[in-house]
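Q: How would the structure tokens look for this protein?
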Amino acid sequence: MRQTILPVSTSGPGLYEFTEEAARFVQQAGVDFGLLTVFVRHTSCSLVIQENADPDVRRDLDAFFDRLVPPSDDPSMNWVIHRMEGPDDMPAHIKAALTQTSIGIPVSEGRMTLGTWQGIYLFEHRSRPHRREVVLHLG
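A: Here is the predicted structure in token form.
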């Protein structure tokens, strides 16, 4: 078993790809077959596997989640109680709850078995920059 913590710096909302870093970790681990568990250690961002060829996909996902869960200062969000860290705080928690904080990716012949256009992303839901930590565990 191998494990590492991968820092991911964000500059605001959006999808931050770290597929190459995860692939490098798997390659260096020297494991032929196993399961890579990817886990983010935060409650206001999440993980997604998504298309990595067309940047419009990432823009559309951002726009969809912004429409689905607008900032808490939007009139449609007047029911929100938790506002301690600003209008993006509770919406970030909701977006994280709607996605996932852990992903399992099979490893076969020393490589992640991702599809041709799949990439691994940290989905940042907060407005200000953050330094996030993603745990990569290969077992």
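The longest helix spans residues 55-68.

Helices lie at 19-29, 55-68, 89-98.

Upvote if useful.
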